[in-house]
Design brief:
Layout (H helix, E strand, L loop, with lengths): L2 H4 L31 H6 L2 E2 L9 H8 L3 E8 L9 E2 L3 E2 L5 H11 L3 E7 L6 H4 L3 H15 L3 E5 L8 H17 L4 E7 L7 H13 L5 E5 L8 H19 L3 H6 L1 E6 L1 E2 L5 E2 L1 H13 L4 E5 L31 H7 L31 E2 L4 E4 L2 E5 L3 E2 L11 E6 L1
Parallel strand pairs: 1-2, 2-5, 5-6, 6-7, 7-8, 8-9, 9-12
Antiparallel strand pairs: 2-3, 3-4, 10-11, 13-16, 14-15, 15-17
Helix pairs in contact: 6-7, 7-8, 8-9, 9-11, 11-12
């Protein structure tokens, strides 16, 4: 998932009662202080500090009340080797740029988690010799930045590699044991059924190793999703997978379940608005879920007219919004009321005669010339089709007829 990240630069929490602070020992000049509550690490949105026109985290904190950020992504070096880098290019050992971002956030009373993996790039679990070597590489990141939280983002293509996933899960377990109080999340792809075959295999690997993180989170986007209802359905299905895999009851499964969304227009042309985020937030809090996050803060601002041509951007959302609208849902999940703001901008009215056609249905049969609407665009079928999501493609069944 998160295909956008592969082409735009770098490759890319516990229950409601968790409110205590736990300090880790960190031998670095990171300026680490006492940890935030786990709830803040569970609410931390993703931020790319070196790519995709990084926003000023201090400005976001002032505007929203946000305290925690999920910095992305740590990968293996592009040239090979078992040492941590930012995006495959900037060695963690010699980093000063990300350290400056961390210092800025901590100076304002906030903190960071670091995400490892993401979509694309070479992951440390793929190149390190075993779980111990993988853990040693990640320990360098924890020590460098004095981390209290870490996220294992296990998705394509790494999660299709059995040996790599064994190394990553083994490393996560070692880090959890060697860093008491470390908040550990595991993020993987979402599907309508919860998660796919590879995601289920990852859960089985965790079970076989006796590893239980603070949460397993799914990303219900880039898979034929259409708004909040499809996402909450996937979260319900994923809860059942957690129950059957680990033998948990429903409440225990929700206490170890997380949501990682994508704000605005997704890589495959799905749209998730502020209303969708509120609906999923309500679901997450009412079911006592452990995590609510999204990709990404770099995108949490409105596109300029020149940028907003019905495409997905790494630096804006492609929906009408005020800056940092989506970050405020993370703040709410953490249990804090964001500062009041001006109303969300009103989208430009649709010109007469360009209204939306009947909504696309996954169960309906369409033939040549049939027209539908999907994600605020109209589409015309080129030939017979059923259950093929409308996506712009020269060779696909659907012809894009423009916004509606």
């Amino acid at each position: 998932m998160r295909r956008l990240r592969a082409c735009l630069g770098a490759a890319a929490a516990v229950g409601l009662a968790a409110a205590g602070t736990t300090a880790l020992v960190a031998g670095s000049a990171s300026g680490a202080t006492s940890a935030l509550s786990n709830r803040w690490y569970a609410a931390a949105p993703y931020l790319m500090p070196l790519d995709n026109d990084p926003p000023d985290p201090a400005a976001i904190m002032d505007a929203t009340g946000l305290k925690a950020f999920q910095l992305a992504f740590v990968l293996a070096p592009n040239g090979g080797g078992c040492s941590p880098t930012w995006g495959g290019t900037a060695a963690v050992s010699s980093d000063t740029a990300v350290q400056s971002v961390v210092n800025t956030i901590r100076a304002k009373g906030g903190d960071v988690s670091v995400s490892i993996g993401g979509y694309g790039g070479t992951k440390l679990g793929q190149v390190c010799s075993d779980a111990a070597a993988t853990a040693a590489a990640y320990q360098q990141v924890i020590t460098k930045y004095g981390l209290h939280a870490i996220d294992f983002d296990l998705e394509e293509p790494e999660y299709e590699n059995t040996a790599a996933i064994k190394n990553e899960i083994g490393a996560a377990k070692i880090l959890q044991q060697n860093n008491p109080g470390l908040y550990v999340s595991v993020t993987t792809a979402g599907t309508a059924d919860g998660t796919g075959w590879f995601g289920k295999q990852m859960l089985l690997e965790a079970k076989s190793q006796g590893f239980t993180p603070n949460n397993f989170s799914i990303m219900p986007f880039d898979g034929g999703f259409n708004g909040a209802a499809s996402q909450t359905s996937a979260l319900t299905n994923f809860n059942q997978i957690l129950q059957s895999t680990f033998g948990w009851d429903q409440a225990t499964a929700y206490a170890h379940e997380g949501f990682s969304g994508m704000n605005g227009r997704s890589d495959t042309g799905e749209y998730f608005t502020q209303t969708d985020f509120q609906t999923v937030l309500d679901y997450a809090t009412s079911h006592n879920m452990d995590r609510f996050t999204f990709w990404s803060l770099n995108r949490d601002r409105q596109c300029t007219p020149a940028d907003n041509g019905g495409r997905t951007s790494g630096t804006c959302s492609s929906v009408a919004q005020n800056s940092w609208d989506f970050a405020k849902y993370s703040v709410k999940f953490a249990g804090v009321t964001p500062p009041s703001s001006t109303p969300t901008p009103t989208p430009t009215p649709t010109p007469p005669g360009t209204g939306c056609k009947p909504a696309w249905s996954s169960t309906a049969v369409y033939t040549t010339g049939n027209e539908v609407s999907y994600n605020l665009r109209n589409w015309k079928a080129k030939w017979w089709t059923q259950n093929e999501t409308p996506v712009a493609s020269d060779w696909g069944v659907w012809q894009d007829e423009g916004a509606c």
